[in-house]
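Researcher: Structure prediction, please.
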Amino acid sequence: MCGIVGFSSKDTSAVGPLLNGLHRLEYRGYDSAGVALEGAEGIKIYKQTGKVAKLDALLKKALPGDEAQKFTIGIAHTRWATHGLPTVANAHPHVSGDGSLALVHNGIIENHAALRAGLEKRGAKFLSQTDTEVLAHLVGAFDKGDLFSATCEALRRVEGTYGVALISEKHPGEMIVARKGSPLVIGVGENETVVASDVSAIVAYTRQVIYLKDGDVARITPDGIEIRSLDFASVSREVQEVDWDIGSIEKGGYEHFMLKEIFEQPDALQNTIRGRLDSRDGTAILSGLNLTPRELAAVRRIVVIGCGTSLHAGMVGKYLFENLADIPASPEQAAEFRYSNPIVGPDDLVIALSQSGETADTLAAVRESIRKGALVASLCNVVGSTIARETGRGVYLHAGPEISVASTKAFTAQVMALCMIALKLGRTRRLSREDGIQLAAEIERIPELIKAVLAQSKTIEQIAEKYAKANDMFFIGRGILYPTALEGALKIKEIAYVHAEGYQAAELKHGPIALLREETPVVALLADVPGKEKTLGNVQECRARRAPVIGIVTEGDAAAAAAVDDTIFIPRTLPSLSPIVTVVALQLFAYHVARLRGCEIDQPRNLAKSVTVE
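Model: Predicted structure follows.
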């Protein structure tokens, strides 16, 4: 979940690219940050707690004028704390026992305690509480003149996950990087190489990249890149081109990345849909699934796995698969999946949802499903990501980069992709051509419907002003809108720090209603879907306890609007697609509440974007 950057050049200072990369990766962790720079006088290390801006200020003071030009190779890190508090001592880079080697790491070394004990018996002195410092000492202990071999020797003794980059003053001009379960990408530029845990730190310098795979170890020098396995076997990795540029990861005039990404959803969904609908036959064209009609027809059950927002999208998928394709479906929390001894087999289709394609728990669930012989597909937003590669089939979202920690357009793109899969599966079963054509036509309309919701941002902001000081909120919905209620509650929690709960509307009176009072607003999802009338009854129960109710209501539904205190109108659409237009209103509501409360929206406390540790 931390951000790693490395830079190597013959004649360009590494300081600027390293700091720029850290700023790009700060969504992956912002507890502390640090850099290690190699120059003629050895390695210099600078670390700070807090955000990258503090490290930036420290370096400007420490390396004035042309001082920064002396360093053409370096590594950098922005941390999301796992082992140890966010202190300078625990910040990366960490060094070997003699201080000659500096290392940054993303992941968790599960056997760090045993390794530490062994090193301490040999006289090692540790300065931090981290698992990473153990690895720095271990590589240093094995260094007998070949940094590459020393790294491999150390990593063969490691249990857990890692993305690492290291430099040593004993091996000037050389950087070693390696990955297992934690992403690393090498950007190949002219006379320079950039390493990062995400391509967003690379595209300012080059769009030509190499995605390292698990077990890869690379030696980077100003003269080139050599990739081998841990047992020194030569490895060939394809150079790929990133299909978006630096403009995609700029704010573009918006106050926050989250707001930009909310407003990008019409275009993002258009990209998800483009070329994937057959309007004549009322089906979807999803060649990435790599399943024949006979194989699709043989699917007897679908399991959708994910975490957080992706899990909520998977819960929507359950309703889509069962209502459109008559296939039993179950959403599963990926972190629990492999520990529950899941019952899956060759007649089951497991669909893994992950924006980054690197979510550790979801990757573990994918591997467990493959071991048990299930068909496994993925919905990912990052081309070349580990989950996409290991499943070998699925649907890329093409939603564009998502920088804000709180996911928005990835959720709507995931739901859209699930809907198209359900459409395709349904057409192999009982979904008629006419119903398929109707659904395909409505899918095509969704980007315009989202624009209509976005046009109400000012109205939603005015409603948010009334409730911005609330410390507790409830979100209720029924059927396909229940997962959307969960997602709305999650957004408020993530970015506004408001205690919020999402409930199936009927469940409110089975306990949680005891918490309702005048200071506890309830957000009721009242789009025109089956169960709406029952939800309106639950609204009356809330208002009888003096709780104010904000209704998300279909345009033209005067009765629903009259039943609530404040109304946000959304366009009418098919029930299967109602979660997409509904959630956009909830995203805007959460954003405006957070902004009015003065919260850090793009980088909320304690959170990081890509969860690459279990």
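Model: The CA atoms of residues 176 and 219 lie 5 Å apart.
Researcher: Thanks, that helps.
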